[in-house]
Amino acid sequence: MDSLTASPPALRRLKLDQALALLKQAGYPLPATRELGLETLQAIIDGLCDLSLRDALTGLANRRHFRAALERELDRVARTGESALLLVLDIDHFKRVNDTLGHEAGDRVITTVAQRLTDCVRPMDVVARYGGEEFAILLPNCQPTFGPLVAERVRRSVESEPVQLAHGQEVRVTVSVGGAYAPQWVRSSASLWMERADLQLYCAKTEGRNRVCLEPTPVSSVSSEEKSMLFGVSSFAELRELGDE
Ligand SMILES: Nc1nc2c(ncn2[C@@H]2O[C@H](COP(=O)(O)OP(=O)(O)OP(=O)(O)O)[C@@H](O)[C@H]2O)c(=O)[nH]1
């Protein structure tokens, strides 16, 4: 008997009520009936799955969801050779917003930036809140000639208008953007791709903020780590040995 079936009925009912309350609060549609039929159970499972993939403040994809999308995209690019761009963004001097206007104003800035990012990309692109004031956007099928244009559009969408706060207050914010393309025809990892985009974000910050830094073209050179993923070996020596066989 597993732990769920072993629970007393009252406890099970309580957990179910908690799940229903959570979904209701998040605005998920649930069947009106309180009968625990298949339809109700499926709606609860679907709702909880969806909730587990979203960031609570903005409703964007959360880190877990985004990492899975990156892995899927890497796999697709390795097979098809299409190009895909990853952008990472960080709100500039965000600590000042919190310190001078308060945490609630900071939250308002985060949700407004999230909305602007969502509005300026295609529905097929994945926008995520990756950390506190850090966002990431996955742009599948994005040609290198368009990359700089898209990244600049994203940067401008945040800068374009002040964020409206409570009591008629407003604040202007900007973002720094770093970007890297997925390596084509190579099996890479989400961490390596993210690292390369982060490096570009670091450049954008150190070069003065409110700017875009992108790796110029998709990387065609293959790192030793990526080579080992491609061939399933851990060192060049091992790779050479394989070639000699
Ligand atoms: N209001 C609010 N603040 C958050 C949230 N998550 C993180 N923060 C704050 O975001 C701030 C991030 O500050 P820093 O990492 O110093 O960066 P910064 O001030 O944006 O400076 P640069 O990135 O160097 O331009 C910290 O003060 C965090 O407390 C959140 O969900 N809501």
UniProtKB/TrEMBL annotation:
Cited NCBIfam families: GGDEF
CDD domains xref list: GGDEF
SUPFAM superfamilies cross-referenced by the UniProt entry: Nucleotide cyclase (SSF55073)
EC number in record: 2.7.7.65
Catalytic activity: 2 GTP = 3',3'-c-di-GMP + 2 diphosphate
Domain GGDEF: 82-217
Source organism, top-level taxon: Bacteria
Pfam families referenced in this protein's UniProt entry, alphabetically: GGDEF (PF00990)
Protein name (record): diguanylate cyclase
Matching InterPro entries: Diguanylate_Cyclase (IPR050469), GGDEF_dom (IPR000160), Nucleotide_cyclase (IPR029787), Rev_trsase/Diguanyl_cyclase (IPR043128)
